[in-house]
Structure to design on (461 residues):
């Protein structure tokens, strides 16, 4: 392998590691990010504002306050140095009256203490610009041992300088050595930002509401429910999306109506022919061949009803509150009336908003499918704050795991898997899933604890 190939391999491995690290960081960042549009929009507004204010405050502190404080502290220390020069060069001022008079004009208070050691250094704050600046200026301009006290809320700063035969104690105004308007600056910065943020939150909430209404209307339409008070609102883009949803909803409903009208015509024509067949068979008389033909005509009628029910779906029915516990009890009675053992249990609030006739047909198809291949059926309902779950268990032969999704295809029959000994159209499960999905839910098949098949209908409430 040449040097060029080795270099390309290293670059490729490094790029793969960088890509993997980037993906990991991206996933970690997404896990910390809020999922709602309202929270993300607030974050988009708050984060730049906080960063901007932090940068402005830092620059202001480092550039403006530091510069101003350094100059003020240098001026105060220069005055103190001048007073020390006066003390050294004018020994005739025995009582220091002239020195105190000069200090008073410089807005300083001076007195003298007996010579001795300086007080021990006091506790220093974590961040004290005044303490640092004064210390630097005193060391630079005076070059004598000194002690300062800037801690506390007093308006005065105490400075002590070691002289040859005494200690000069100076009291200076804090405002003369330090730019102390930080609280006012922070108050105005935080106050104006809070007002702007409150206004932004109010406006953002009004902009988010139309999007939430559009999402609720789309969710209601997916569940087969109406949203009568929905109309386009909000910004131009949101209105455009809402108008597109209304037009799409109208096209879907119009397509369903046209299909229903066509199927009604087909149903009328085919039923007329089947009725004619039944009348002709009744006029012919009795016989084994006639009985077989009557059975075929009856089977054709049932298959026609199944085909039309599958194609028609649940169009035209309006969702309304339905007592699911009572509906499950009716299914149990029907199963026992046909000679099967059935049990029913329901947990939670039983009233759920569904299309009653179509949803009962969905559950009825599952129960009849179980009754066709099993002797014992267990029906369990459970409703929480999000979903309604209806579970139908049986003790029949079940369905192989590889075929549990295939059985939902129209006209598919698993005679060997379910040991069917009677005819059917192969549309029962397809109709049931179509109805469940029209309510915004679905049907899942799995192995039952009873040894047969478990069918679970889950729809949002």
């Amino acid at each position: 392998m040449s040097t060029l190939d080795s270099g390309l391999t290293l670059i490729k491995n490094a790029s793969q590691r960088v890509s993997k690290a980037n993906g990991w960081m991206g996933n970690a960042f997404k896990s910390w990010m809020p999922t709602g549009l309202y929270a993300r929009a607030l974050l988009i507004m708050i984060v730049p504002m906080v960063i901007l204010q932090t940068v402005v405050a830092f620059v202001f502190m480092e550039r403006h306050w530091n510069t101003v404080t350094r100059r003020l502290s240098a001026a105060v220390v220069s005055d103190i140095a001048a007073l020390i020069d006066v003390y050294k060069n004018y020994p005739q001022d025995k009582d220091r009256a002239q020195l105190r008079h000069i200090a008073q004009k410089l807005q300083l208070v001076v007195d003298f203490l007996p010579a001795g050691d300086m007080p021990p250094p006091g506790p220093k704050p974590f961040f004290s610009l005044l303490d640092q600046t004064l210390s630097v200026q005193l060391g630079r301009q005076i070059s004598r041992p000194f002690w300062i006290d800037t801690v506390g809320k007093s308006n005065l700063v105490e400075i002590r300088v070691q002289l040859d035969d005494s200690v000069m104690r100076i009291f200076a105004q804090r405002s003369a050595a330090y730019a102390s308007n930080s609280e006012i600056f922070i108050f105005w910065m935080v106050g104006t930002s809070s007002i702007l943020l409150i206004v932004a939150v109010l406006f953002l909430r009004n902009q988010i509401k139309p999007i939430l209404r559009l999402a609720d209307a789309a969710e209601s339409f997916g569940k087969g429910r109406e949203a009568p008070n929905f109309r386009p609102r909000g910004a131009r883009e949101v209105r455009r999306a809402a108008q597109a949803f209304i037009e799409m909803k109208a096209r879907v409903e119009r397509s369903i109506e046209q299909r229903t009208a066509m199927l009604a015509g087909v149903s009328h024509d085919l039923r007329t022919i089947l009725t004619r067949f039944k009348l002709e068979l009744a006029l012919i008389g009795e016989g084994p061949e006639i009985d077989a033909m009557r059975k075929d005509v009856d089977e054709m009628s049932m298959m026609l009803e199944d085909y039309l029910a599958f194609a028609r779906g649940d169009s035209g029915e309006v969702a309304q509150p339905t007592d699911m516990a009572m509906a499950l009890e009716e299914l149990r009675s029907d199963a026992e009336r046909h000679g099967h053992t059935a049990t029913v249990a329901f947990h939670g609030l039983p009233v759920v908003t569904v299309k009653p006739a179509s949803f009962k047909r969905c559950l009825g198809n599952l129960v009849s499918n179980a009754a066709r291949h099993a002797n014992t059926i267990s029906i369990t309902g459970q409703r929480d704050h999000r979903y309604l779950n209806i579970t139908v268990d049986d003790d029949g032969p079940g369905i192989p795991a590889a075929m549990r999704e295939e059985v939902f295809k129209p006209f598919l029959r698993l005679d060997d898997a379910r040991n069917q000994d009677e005819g059917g159209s192969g549309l029962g499960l397809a109709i049931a899933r179509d109805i469940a999905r029209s309510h915004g839910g679905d049907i899942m098949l799995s192995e039952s604890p009873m040894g047969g098949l478990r069918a679970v209908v889950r729809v949002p409430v």
The chain has a mean pLDDT of 80. Residues 53 and 190 are 9 Å apart (CA to CA). The chain is about 60% helix and 15% strand. Residues 37-89 form the longest helix (53 residues).
